[in-house]
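I wish you would study the pair of lines that follows with an eye to the fold:

===
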Amino acid sequence: MAISLKPQHLNRYRQIAWLFVKYGRSDLVKETGLEETLEAEQRVTPKEAAKASELADDLEKLGPTFVKLGQLLSTRVELMPKAYLEALARLQDKVEPFPFDEVEKIVSSELGVRMSKAFSDFDVTPMAAASLGQVHRARLRDGRQVAVKVQRPGIREALLEDLDALDEIAEFLDKHTAAGKRYEFCQMLDQFRKSLLRELDYRLEASNLTTIGANLRAFEHIVVPAPILDYSTSRVLTMQYVHGKKITDLHPLARMEFDGAALADELFRAYLQQILVDGFFHADPHPGN
């Protein structure tokens, strides 16, 4: 028995099938019937094992949905070998950015004014770019320095199309393979879908920043950037700019200059409060965030 292939998803099936073959899961491709989407030369498992660094590149080529999957895998130490965790980590904030003219169109359209009217400065080069959007440093007309998160153009349509194709594959795997029965891919994909669609509404993120900022205000060393609501919409999030550095980017000598144990203790206590007292917590604390 094989999956019923929908014509509108054929190219996506082919790309996913080749990814499975390249990374040693040609068995799943055969079981699902996705093999028939591949060219003859693509059906042969590569003689040499694919390098870990290639997986991040391949997922990025497949687009935002797969970059997001790569981000999730980059923190799953119980599932992925160390080399793959390190390679996938760049997908947290070092994805290829989209052009600045698109940024300008989206910001102007969302805020209802020309970018130059809202901001006195707006960096052309993003500070970071990830699966769903990218962040630019800017300055408001009143002099406040801000970080502006801008959603990728056409992202919602692309995600829904990909999730549709993945749904069909997950359903088949759950019903007809041992891996599917063990991992329940449909359930995982359903949670992934809900999480992604929530992330696409930056108004919800702005509200979360306000809530968690208020909840953690007693913690001296934890700073939650405040959203600038007048300059935020569902696709643009403007927030207070807080200078910082990824913990994974700190040189060992730099780590000696502050009391890491005290900071870790405060962070631990903050998480206990979030989970046990507030019932509202940061659920995606990878280094890129």
Strands lie at 119-122, 128-129, 133-140, 145-151, 236-240. Residues 155-176 form the longest helix (22 residues). The chain has three domains: 7-95+155-198, 100-154+201-245, 246-284. The chain has a mean pLDDT of 85.
